[in-house]
Structure formats: structure tokens, C-alpha cells
Design goal:
The complex is a heterodimer of chains A (296) and B (408).
Chain A: H1 2-24, H2 29-36, H3 45-63, E1 68-70, E2 80-85, H4 94-102, E3 115-120, E4 130-131, E5 144-149, H5 158-162, E6 168-170, E7 176-178, H6 188-192, E8 199-200, E9 215-217, E10 229-230, H7 236-239, H8 246-250, E11 256-260, H9 267-274, E12 277-278, E13 290-293
Parallel strand pairs in A: 1-9, 2-13
Antiparallel strand pairs in A: 2-11, 3-4, 3-5, 6-7, 8-10, 12-13
Chain B: H1 2-15, H2 19-45, H3 60-77, H4 79-84, H5 90-115, H6 138-165, H7 172-198, H8 211-237, H9 244-275, H10 280-287, H11 297-315, H12 317-320, H13 323-344, H14 347-350, H15 365-394, H16 399-407
Classes of the chains: A alpha+beta (296), B mainly alpha (408).
Chain lengths: 296, 408
């Protein structure tokens, strides 16, 4: 009788202990959920909605601001394309910093999605004679021209092919995106990208709360974590709402053009039809949707 | 149940040993702890503790990984000559080769894990639970190749040692088929690893069809070098009997691979330097330096010089058959291939980077400590497995002798 009693007490204690352990870890359940979260492309509509709701709360706790986080899918009949006028670009790097601000790139350690290369006029487009570290009093320098490079949004992207976890893919509107939660940080995509468009969060990313952009897209400019890769998304949070990317808006000389390649009336289509265009590293057959042209 | 006893008894034997054995184990454990603290800093602060950056996004860790894949592959490929030339202790050669392969693969996987930004999310690339990008990503191929290879080798050695321990006759066809299967697997792990880099048109330094053949040739230089020295030690301290001729034959086979490796490298250099396209930039950075950036020159030339000396030492019959010069050659070729794979293969692939910018990379203290941790861990596992294998094969450590002891 006594023995049975002690066993009962033991079982009771055991269940109590289990229960309290579960309750204690309740505060960590969010972390467990996050850990077990599946690939974005396999989530149902409801799962995405819940995820977004939770993230908005989490961001509010961290930055004390109200966020609008969208997961808007690609628009119908849209294939985004970009054209950049090399004869106009003055190398002022305003696009670089507008991009950083719009897309919540880490300030320290510093991440820039756009690199502006200064090249020698005598050499033409030759990466071996280029530098990102130019720093004259005024730009443009008379012997140089400037080639801003970000993600070329390839039709045949090497980065997607090599990703072991399918954490990056091309959306129907042609934008190459990353599921930051799914990225394992192996950096194979960075080795594969011929344009240096992919950037890694080597340390904990840091964006001051007063500078953070609260208009966000799940696959775009939401805050990233340490140890994941990020890249230009053609400002997916803006362009899917019908706005221009931040770099197009900021450019003081109008060198940057953006539009729908499927729309025959669009500006990019006009440029493709009427100007001399080139794509970088054409021989690699990556087929960029980012064109360079000479407008003047 | 028998297997359980086997594991327990194997555990027991690892606890017994000479003072040197204990000193060696303590030394390794201390190194693991020292390295482990370095790695823990990387775990908490991120890969920013390394000197890798966006320009050079893979470096020392991946170089070590590549080198160890070569060791793992070559250790088993040595079974082929052992079989063809009918060296007497073929079972022992299989066991020691596969033990080395097992440890090398464990170290390979560790180097991948420490290189990943979020190691806990590794399951994302697994089949079924995650979304593996098979067959498109070469990393998914490497995952399968390495794991299958690890499993086959572990099964073969465990089974052989188990049977010896229980004094049972092992199933010859079963072992033969597994060993025969492990040989093409050995070739495939190194080929797939070469294809991993080879597959990237963005990196002209790697995008050469000769990369995989060069990998295999260099692996056949460095892998047997370890076994060559190991066999001599085993011959001294145990009843392991391997004839001088067998060791010289291994050395002779290494000369062939060194020659092939040298020839492939010269072919590559000729093509790059004579055609002088923009792709020559990476080779220039490696061998001559670009402008003031000559960081890799000392590594590349030391690797070349060590390799050439080893080649000469192994080529001349008199120095090949002299065990002092033979061992010097073995150490030199091992060091040469280590520098080549660890430094001279990965870093020039990224320097200059795809946009022509030069970021000077040298491993950080964290990277060195992490590498020390993994190498010590691998050595520790190898020592323990060797200890077990030696006891069972040569020291009559088996079920009968244990039972006898109990009766006494």
C-alpha cells in the first residue's frame, strides 16, 4: 500500500515537474517556433499571416515603432527590368546610401547592396582597373566614369542553382529573393554570384531605431539576423506597390530607369528598343534584367 | 547484446595505456579546449571573428575541408595497390586506411559546420525535414557522398574488428563488396568536392576542367604520405608486418601521382599565362602578387618548392629506399599539399573578387584556434580508434583472453 502511494506521489511530482518545465519554457516557445519554421514557399496563407502578425509585435518591442510588414505576392503580367545610363552617372553614391536607408541595411558592420565602381575612361569597362575606394573632392572625375553594380536580377541566376536549401528563388515578377529565416549561411551563393551582389551578415546587424524604415516586405527589407545572406530586391516593398525603387528616386541625374519589361510602353522597353545596351559579363549567360546603356 | 559488450570492452581498452599515451591524450584535450574557446567567441559574435568578408567569403575553413576530403579519399584508394600487388597484411591496410578515412570525414564535416553562419539551421538542407536542392546544388551531392562514405567505412572497420574480437570468421563477400564500393565512393567524394568549385563560372580560377583531376592527383600524394609514416610506426611498436618493398611501392605510386599532378599544374599554368586573358589575374596574385599585394606568394612558392623536393626525393631510387629521406619527402609532400589546398586553392578564387577588388585575407586567430580544435579532435578520435584496432588485431585483445582473465 505504502509502495503504491509513493509511486503515485512520484508520478504526480513527475507530471508537475514536466508541466512547470513546459510553462517555464513558454517564454522560449517563440524561439522554438521560429526554429521550426518551414521554408516560406511551403507555408499556407494562414501561416504567413500569423508569422507576419508575430513579427510586427516583435519589431515593435525591439524598435518601439509601428511597422507595416507586407508579404504581397508578385503582380500579374509583370517582369521588372532596370536600365542604367552610364553616360549620365556621376558616381556620387547617393543611390548607395538611399538604398541602405530604404532597405534597413546594417550600419555597423556596414553593408552596401550597391557598389559604385570608378573605372578608367582609357580602359573601358575593365574590373581589373576599377576601384570602389575612390574619394575625390568632387565627382565626376574627368578621366573616369562610374559603374554602379547591384543585383543584376539574372534570368538564369547562379546563386539560386547552388543554394543547398532552396532558401533563395526567383519570384514570378523576376525578383530574386531570400527567405532570411531559411538561409543557413553557407555562402555558396556568394561564391557563385559573378556580380558581388550578395552580402553576408558577418556580425549582428545594427540599424538605429530612429532610422529604421517601417514600410517592409517579408522578402525584402525586414530586419535581418546575424549569419544570413541578403541582397537587392528591386525594393520589393515599393515596386509591388507601384513605386520606383529608392535608388531610381534619389538619382540626381536621372541615370536610373525602372519598369515592366512586359509592358511595351514602359521606359525600359523604350531604352531596349532605341539605345545601345549592354549587360555585365554577358559571356557567363546569366542573362541579367539589369541593363547598362549610353543615353547621350 | 554481443555488440554492446564489444563497445564496452573497446571503451575499456582506450583507458589503459602507457604514460606517453596519456600525455598525448592530455595534450590533445588541452588543444581542444584552447581552440574551443576561440570557436565559442565565433559562436556568440558571429563569423565577424574570422577575417572572411564579402570579397573573400570562403577561406581557411573551406580550404581545410577540401584538404581533408583528399586525405579521406586517398586513405581508401590505397586498398587498390594493396590488392593488386597482393601485399600480405591487406586486411590491416584496409582497417587502418578506413579508420583514417573515418576521422578525416569527421573533420571535414566539422569544418563545414564551423563555416556555416547558422549551424543550428543545418537541417534546412536535409532531405524530407528540410528542402534540399537536389540535384542542382553540388553541396547536396557532397552531403550524400560524404555521409555514405562515412557510413560504409565505419561499417567495414567495425564489422572487421567485431569479428576479430569474437574470433568469428567474417563474411568475405560482404566485406569485399563494401570495400569495392568504397573505392569509387572515395573517388567520388573528391570529385564532387572539386565540382563544387568547378561549377562556378563566376570564379575563373576554379572553372577549369583540370580541377577535379588535379584534386585526385594531389590527394594521392598527401593521403598515402600519412599512411606511409603510420605503417612504419606500427611496424615498430606492434606485430604489424609490412615488408619494405610494400612501403617502397607506395612511395613509387606516389611519385606517379606527383608527376601527374605536376604535369596537370604545368598544363594549367601554360594555358593561363600563354593565353594571358583577364583570367590570368588570379594566378598572378597567387604566384607573383598584384602590385604591392604579394600576400600569397610566400605560401604558393613554399608549396611548390616543398612539392618539388619531395618529388625528387621520391623519384631517385636511392633516396626513396632510404627511410630517412623517404620520411622527409613524405612530410614535405604532405605540407606542400596542405598549403596548396588550405591557402592556395580557395583564396585566389576570391582575390581579386568578382568586381576586381582586392581584399587581403589572412586567417584570424579565431580561425586558427577553431582549426586547431578540429584537427586535435580528429587526432584524438584517430588515436582512440587506433588504440582499439591495435589491441584487437595485434595484442590478442579478444573475448577469449578477457574470459580467461575473469576466470583467473
Amino acid at each position: 500500500m505504502k509502495k503504491e502511494n509513493s509511486r503515485r506521489i512520484f508520478l504526480k511530482n513527475l507530471s508537475l515537474a514536466t508541466f512547470s518545465a513546459l510553462a517555464l519554457s513558454g517564454c522560449n516557445m517563440k524561439k522554438v517556433d521560429e526554429f521550426l519554421q518551414k521554408n516560406f514557399r511551403t507555408l499556407t496563407k494562414k501561416e504567413v499571416d500569423d508569422l507576419i502578425k508575430n513579427l510586427v509585435i516583435e519589431y515593435k518591442e525591439k524598435y518601439h515603432k509601428d511597422f507595416h510588414l507586407s508579404a504581397k505576392p508578385a503582380l500579374e503580367e509583370t517582369l521588372f527590368g532596370y536600365a542604367l545610363d552610364l553616360s549620365r552617372c556621376i558616381g556620387c553614391r547617393r543611390c548607395v546610401y538611399a538604398c541602405v536607408k530604404e532597405n534597413n541595411q546594417s550600419r555597423n558592420p556596414q553593408i552596401h547592396w550597391i557598389q559604385v565602381l570608378q573605372m578608367e575612361k582609357e580602359k573601358g569597362i575593365d574590373f581589373a582597373y576599377s576601384t570602389v575606394q575612390y574619394n575625390p573632392e568632387t565627382v565626376p572625375d574627368k578621366d573616369h566614369f562610374y559603374v554602379p553594380i547591384g543585383c543584376q536580377q539574372c534570368r538564369n541566376p547562379q546563386c539560386i542553382k547552388v543554394c543547398p536549401a532552396k532558401a533563395t528563388w526567383q519570384e514570378p515578377d523576376g525578383i530574386v529573393v531570400i527567405d532570411y529565416n531559411w538561409c543557413i549561411g553557407c555562402r555558396y551563393c556568394m561564391a557563385a554570384c559573378p556580380y558581388g551582389a550578395r552580402h553576408f551578415n558577418w556580425g549582428e546587424p545594427n540599424v538605429p531605431a530612429e532610422e529604421i524604415n517601417t514600410e517592409m516586405h517579408y522578402l525584402g527589407n525586414r530586419p535581418r539576423m546575424k549569419g544570413v545572406v541578403e541582397k537587392c530586391t528591386f525594393c520589393v516593398q515599393r515596386t509591388r506597390e507601384g513605386k520606383y525603387p529608392a535608388c531610381v528616386e534619389i538619382c540626381p541625374v536621372g541615370a536610373r530607369k525602372f519598369g515592366n519589361l512586359l509592358d511595351p510602353e514602359s521606359e525600359v522597353r523604350y531604352i531596349l528598343a532605341n539605345k545601345r545596351v549592354l549587360v555585365l559579363k554577358q559571356e557567363l549567360n546569366t542573362q541579367p534584367k539589369f541593363y547598362y546603356f549610353f543615353g547621350i | 547484446m554481443n555488440f554492446f559488450h564489444f563497445i564496452i570492452d573497446c571503451g575499456k581498452i582506450t583507458l589503459r595505456g602507457s604514460k606517453t599515451y596519456y600525455a598525448w591524450l592530455t595534450f590533445l584535450v588541452l588543444l581542444i579546449i584552447w581552440g574551443g574557446f576561440g570557436y565559442s567567441a565565433q559562436l556568440s559574435d558571429g563569423l565577424i571573428k574570422t577575417h572572411m568578408r564579402d570579397s573573400v567569403s570562403w577561406a581557411f575553413y573551406i580550404g581545410n575541408f577540401t584538404f581533408l576530403v583528399g586525405i579521406a579519399a586517398a586513405a581508401v584508394m590505397l586498398v587498390i595497390p594493396a590488392y593488386i600487388y597482393n601485399w600480405k597484411p591487406i586486411k590491416e591496410i584496409v582497417i587502418f586506411g578506413e579508420l583514417l578515412a573515418v576521422c578525416a570525414v569527421i573533420m571535414c564535416i566539422s569544418f563545414i559546420v564551423v563555416d556555416i553562419g547558422r549551424p543550428l539551421r543545418f537541417w534546412h538542407m536535409l532531405p524530407i525535414v528540410g528542402t534540399m536542392n537536389f540535384p542542382y546544388s553540388l553541396l547536396s551531392w557532397d552531403f550524400f557522398a560524404l555521409n555514405i562514405y562515412l557510413i560504409i567505412n565505419s561499417v567495414v572497420v567495425t564489422y572487421l574488428l567485431y569479428c576479430t574480437f569474437y574470433k568469428k570468421q567474417y563474411n568475405k563477400t560482404f566485406v569485399l563488396w563494401l570495400v569495392l564500393f568504397s573505392i569509387p565512393m572515395a573517388v567520388s567524394i573528391h570529385t564532387v568536392t572539386a565540382f563544387l568549385y568547378n561549377a562556378l563560372p563566376a570564379r575563373p580560377f576554379w572553372n577549369s576542367a583540370l580541377l577535379a583531376p588535379r584534386f585526385l592527383a594531389s590527394a594521392f600524394c598527401s593521403g598515402p604520405a600519412i599512411l606511409l609514416i603510420l605503417f612504419q610506426i606500427l611496424r615498430k611498436i606492434t606485430k604489424f608486418e609490412i615488408k619494405d618493398e610494400a612501403i617502397w611501392t607506395i612511395a613509387e605510386l606516389m611519385v606517379y601521382s606527383m608527376f601527374i599532378y605536376l604535369f596537370f599544374s604545368v598544363a594549367e599554368l601554360f594555358k593561363e599565362f600563354y593565353s594571358g586573358t583577364e583570367h590570368v589575374l588570379y594566378w598572378k596574385y597567387l604566384l607573383l602578387g598584384i602590385g604591392d599585394n604579394k600576400e600569397l606568394v610566400v605560401y604558393s612558392w613554399s608549396s611548390i618548392i616543398m612539392g618539388c623536393i619531395a618529388f625528387v626525393l621520391f623519384l631517385i631510387p636511392a633516396t626513396r629506399k632510404n627511410f630517412i629521406t623517404l620520411n622527409i619527402g613524405a612530410v614535405l609532400i604532405y605540407a606542400s599539399v596542405y598549403v596548396e589546398k588550405g591557402i592556395a586553392l580557395i583564396i585566389p578564387g576570391f582575390t581579386p573578387d568578382v568586381l576586381g577588388q582586392i581584399y587581403v585575407y589572412t586567417p584570424s586567430m579565431t580561425e586558427i584556434r577553431t582549426a586547431v580544435m578540429i584537427f586535435s579532435l580528429g587526432s584524438l578520435v584517430f588515436t582512440i580508434l587506433l588504440k582499439i584496432a591495435i589491441a584487437i588485431i595485434f595484442e590478442n585483445y579478444n573475448i577469449d583472453s578477457l574470459n580467461q582473465k575473469k576466470e583467473n
